[in-house]
Amino acid sequence: MEWIDVGKKLAGIGLPVLGGVLGGAPGAALAKGLAGWITGNQDDSPESIINALEDPEAQQRAREFYAKHEETVLRLHLQAEEARNREETARTVTVNETMRKEADSLNFLVNSWRAVIGYAVAFNIVIASSVVAAAYLGVIFGSSTADLLSLIPAMLGAMGVVNGAALPILGVNTYFHGKGLADPNNKEITRG
């Protein structure tokens, strides 16, 4: 059993914040205290706490422990959230630095890969539309049999997968790039 199992068990009895802070170094002392409070011994393993929490009296003691140490539990919870936020901010900063370097690069392939994807997807759409139109026109005017139309769903499905993967990425990027270009005060976007 892991600390996440203890967290789920505590959440099940109405103590999700307490369960969330037990794992890791900051919660180790708290886990030891909780184990001592609900079982009377100092075995702070996840198994020991989960087994003890099967007893309704131990559940009540866990609620009492939370009430007595609520300030400490909330402080540890906030510290854990702040640490997660710092990690996420650091990842976002790294991504933004990479994107700025791409935009400022003089290498055509580095700073225009999104545009290249856009043109490739547009070409894909034009070809797919042309093939569908040619197939239907061939059947309508009698130069092809209707069996040809049975191949269109598979071809469009394959092209749809390609477009479905690339278009959301391209759309989000284009939206924010366009927003940046429209802002005359934005000095970080390369214009041209």
Tell me about this structure.
The protein is mostly helical and 192 residues long. The protein is 78% helix and 0% strand. It contains nine helices and no strands. Helix 1 runs parallel beside helix 4 and helix 3 packs across helix 5. The chain is elongated, with a radius of gyration of 30 Å. It starts with a helix and ends in a 10-residue tail after the last helix. The mean pLDDT is 81.
Radius of gyration: 30 Å
Strand content: under 5%
Described by the principal axes of the CA atoms, the overall outline is elongated
Strand segment tally: 0
How much helix, percentage-wise, in residues?
over 70%
What series of H and E elements makes up the topology?
Answer: HHHHHHHHH
Uncertain stretches of 5 or more adjacent residues: none
- Gap between N and C termini, in Å? 58 Å
The largest sheet, given as strand count, sense and whether it forms a barrel, is:
none
Mean pLDDT: 81
Based on secondary structure, the structural category is mainly alpha
H/I helix tally: 9
Would you spell out the secondary-structure blueprint of this structure?
Elements: H1 3-12, H2 16-21, H3 24-39, H4 46-52, H5 56-68, H6 70-104, H7 108-111, H8 113-140, H9 152-182
